[in-house]
Amino acid sequence: MQRTASAGPGRLECDGYRLEASVTDDEAVSLVRAVVERRYRVVTPLKDSRHCWAARVAIGGRDLVLKVPRARNRRAWERFLTLFRPGESIRQHRSIATLDHLGARGPEPILGAERREAGRVVDGFFLYGYVAGRQATSRDTRAVAEALLELHGHGYLRGDPQAQNFIIDEGQARFIDFKMQRPRFLTRIRLLMEYSKFLESMPFGYRYLDQATRDSRAFRLANALQAGLSCTRRLRKAAKRKLTGWRKG
Question: Is 13 helix (H, G, I), strand (E, B) or coil?
Answer without folding.
Answer: strand
